Amino acid sequence: MSGAELTAGVARGVGRTALLVAAARAVETHRADALAHDAYAEHFVRAVPESAGWPVRPEQVPGGAANPLWERLGRYFGLRTRVLDDFLLRATGAGVRQLVLLGAGLDTRAYRLDWPAGCVAYEIDTEEVLAFKHRVLGGLGAVPRAEHRPLPADLRGDWTAALTGAGFDPSAPAAWLAEGLLFYLPAAAERRLMAAVDHLSAAGSTLAYEVKTAPESRAVRSGPVYTAAREQIGVDLLRLFDAGPRPDSAAGLSGRGWSVSVRTPYEFARAHGRGPLPEPDDALATNRWIFAARPAAGR
Ligand SMILES: C[S@@+](CC[C@H](N)C(=O)[O-])C[C@H]1O[C@@H](n2cnc3c(N)ncnc32)[C@H](O)[C@@H]1O
Predict the structure, then answer these.
(1) Residues near ligand 1 with C-beta < 6 Å?
(2) What's the gap in Å between 180 CA and the centre of ligand 1?
(3) Fold entry, domain 71-223+241-293
(4) Is the whole model's pTM more than 0.85, yes or no?
(5) Do the beta carbons of residue 30 and residue 23 sit within 8 Å?
(6) Nearest residue CA, atom 17 of ligand 1?
(7) Which of 34, 64, 135, 269 is 20 to 30 A off residue 159, Cα-Cα?
(8) InterPro entries this protein is in (predicted)?
(9) Predicted confidence (pLDDT) per residue in 206-252, tens digit
């Protein structure tokens, strides 16, 4: 793929949402009260003509603290990054050595967090997004801090053969992450993905993912967050989200013997002393972060 094809690939469709999250992480990195730091994030944003003018510093946010895109959704992404960083680091602290990032996007955890020796990070996303990421990080001379195995695949289809073919060991525990992914998948694909994760998860595996639990009202859909994303950076989230009814994957995992905890982002915002709290007609009100664990053998 040429450089222009790579940037065009990430700038359109759902790939553009990866740029949105990268820009939010770049802004977060430079906040005085940052919950997460990603020095690579701004380079992705700057490398694509369509996003090169987006903010990557708090002082570049139009309207400052009143901006619903970067202040509300952006801070949400900052909090989410931190909480899910902590989730993965807890897993490796407990001995897990396989990480599988589903819909990894422009997440650079493999490069920016401290992983124990022997840790392998599998990243699944579209070919365009992964190739673009590889090119930008390569240009920066970035070196992964875990064994890094990017796997281009469509997560609506069967990606499991690619994962096991790349060395994933289903007999050893893994930490799985689907951050900002499931909104975009049809319900049937989410069900297949959960069945695959279940099938490939040895005892001691953990999974974190993010969902919206209920359809959003007209007032929420026409509210400031979605409107600002569409108008300020041309990301029409409501068109990109799958419009069908969502499966209850948390209940499905419980039925398969996983222990499941359903949390709101607000709980973490309160615990960290910053991040989004409930507000009227809230675009984050139905977001849930789910943490699931397959009990270790003998428990
Ligand atoms: C909002 S981004 C989140 C990226 C990353 N997890 C983060 O939080 O920074 C959603 C990602 O899911 C990927 N994605 C969506 N549908 C996909 C599919 N069917 N197959 C592979 N990747 C997909 C997109 O390419 C994009 O990188």
Answers:
(1) 14-15, 17-18, 21, 103-107, 125-126, 129, 154-156, 179-181, 184
(2) 7
(3) Rossmann fold (3.40.50)
(4) yes
(5) no
(6) 155
(7) 135
(8) Ppm1/Ppm2/Tcmp, SAM-dependent_MTases_sf, SAM_mthyl_Trfase_ML2640-like
(9) 999 999 999 999 999 999 999 999 999 999 999 999 999 999 999 99
In the reported structure, the alpha carbon of residue 126 is separated from the centroid of ligand 1 by a whole-number distance in angstroms of 8
Nearest CA to ligand 1 atom 9: 107
26-81 pLDDT, tens digit per residue, is: 999 999 999 999 999 999 999 999 999 999 999 999 999 999 999 999 999 999 99
Nearest to 225 by CA among 288, 286, 277, 281: 281
- The domain segmentation of the chain, as residue ranges, is 71-223+241-293
* Token pair 């990866």: residue: 18
User: What is the Cα–Cα distance from 292 to 91, expressed in whole angstroms?
Assistant: 12
Q: What pLDDT is recorded for position 3? A: 80
Q: In what order do the strands lie in the sheet with 98-102?
A: 147-152, 120-125, 98-102, 174-178, 206-212, 287-293, 259-263
- Among protein residues, the one with the nearest Cα to ligand 1's atom 13 is 103
